[in-house]
Amino acid sequence: MEPLEIFIVETAEPSEAKAYESIMKDVISELAFVRTIGRIKVRIRPEDSLFMMAIILRRGLPPVKAKEISETEIDRPGSKVLITVTDEKTIPQFLEKLWAQFGRANVIQPQRNLIEVISDDLKAAEDSIGDIIVDDPEKSLRERLADMAIRSTPEGFRIRYHSLDNGRFIFVASEDTMQQEWIDEARVMLEELTGDDVNGSSA
Amino acid sequence: MAAVLEPYIYEGGIHKHSLILELLEDLGGYLVQKTPASTEVTLVMLIPKKDVPLVEELCKKLLGTLTSAPLTGTEIAVVSPTLASHHLPHSACDVAEYLRRGGANTNMIGLARGMGRRVALSADYERRLINEHDVAVFSFGTFKDCIINKKPKLFEGIDIPIVVSGGPDLKTEDVPGADMYVGGIGRVAHRMRKGPELDAMDVLSEKVGEIINLKREIISKDPLVVLPARLMKEVQEQVPDIHDVLTPAPITLQLDGMRIKLPFEEYHEAIGNIEFDEGFKLSDIANITSSKMKDYVLIKIKRRSEVGSTI
Prior knowledge:
The complex is a heterodimer of chains A (203) and B (311).
Chain A: E1 6-10, H1 14-30, E2 37-45, E3 50-57, E4 64-65, H2 66-69, E5 70-74, E6 81-85, H3 91-102, E7 107-111, E8 114-117, H4 122-130, E9 133-135, H5 137-152, E10 159-165, E11 168-174, H6 180-194
Parallel strand pairs in A: 1-2
Antiparallel strand pairs in A: 2-3, 3-11, 4-9, 5-6, 6-8, 7-8, 10-11
Chain B: E1 5-13, H1 18-27, E2 30-37, E3 40-48, H2 52-61, E4 65-68, E5 75-80, H3 92-101, E6 105-110, H4 124-131, E7 135-139, H5 144-150, E8 162-165, E9 180-182, H6 195-221, H7 228-238, E10 251-254, E11 257-260, H8 264-272, H9 282-285, E12 286-290, E13 297-301, H10 304-307
Parallel strand pairs in B: 5-6, 5-7, 7-8, 8-9
Antiparallel strand pairs in B: 1-3, 1-4, 2-3, 10-11, 11-13, 12-13
Helix pairs in contact in B: 3-6
Protein name (chain A): Putative methanogenesis marker protein 17
Pfam family, one (chain A): DUF2113
Organism (chain A): Methanococcoides vulcani
């Protein structure tokens, strides 16, 4: 799926759809979503105070595991695990994960790219460190997706429904009580977007 | 008979700009606002019509530019339904900036609960604050249905002329309660810098100018007892504390009065006691009230029909 290969905004007045498309484009580029969104469809009915959006995300980046960005070894006296980090920008997240697992007192960072971990069972610790998920781009993407939905909605539409399932996102907002038929309509929009490229929808 | 004054903005270097101020004083003009910014200065002035070429000549000599500023001496409220990122800073702030280029003083007013359709409303305090201005510009969004059917309830209780800006291309009479509608300035999430957007802003500035001229005409039929610019000069001379006020426009002129940015409780008596050479006291020829904006002093000058003569 190409980035933004389908971009549809529907309103009763075609000129309003065009204006809203420009707003959506600004929001998408501001939140750096251009390469992440594959297909997007927005339907707005101001007379019903209704905003609906269906998005199919492109395949995202896989989680970054510790063994991909570092090398671990047990030091010679056998007192601690030495971690040499090769990707410097992940160190803050990595440290946080290590603190959570081994306790702050047992994680020492004598140099910028060197981390020492003290544990009772060094071998088990060394094995487990490699599998720690240091960074999950999917998670930050989910957070930004919610932000994008709220920014694109007309202000005042504060009754919201959203669902994200395997890279398929629907969002409905209104200022009146949420109605099941709106959610169903949004799901139909999502199905229309999916079309024949079902495999492309997984994130 | 007072000389006819023409509003102009000078933009140029700060070096020797005092020559312009001296000339302006000699000619009997008024400096409305002076904004220095590092080595540049912006002067908003009222110049006697027949002496404009003299000032123009001096400005040319100082390598600055003198441009006509039809909105000078007005205070305009730019009203946005809320302060949320959906409405601000674009396009409401862009609108305000464009009006300032025309010489107006603008105040941004974000309503507390102006968002949405059914739920949109304004508070009594907000309406009174808006009514203190000369003109209110309401900055609305993209949808015709909202602008025609829902948002006009925000105009209830607004007595001053209302200019509405929005995305769709509508006629003024389609928007109930509006005195003027300008299209092409709807909700945008970027700074307005594209050709059609800037054109729409020019139209807005022009239309606001028309409304202001209409209001000026109405005032001229039953003129103010004293010109706001003349009163400003008296305030500067007789209430010296105004020179210690640090806001960009310590005295903000309006078509029929002014806002003096000093606390009402402490200063309203001193301001009321301002005397004119012609023998009047300000409290006799103007209503001095507390402004809804930070408890400043709001002056509305009385008309000739009320007082019997003009200064």
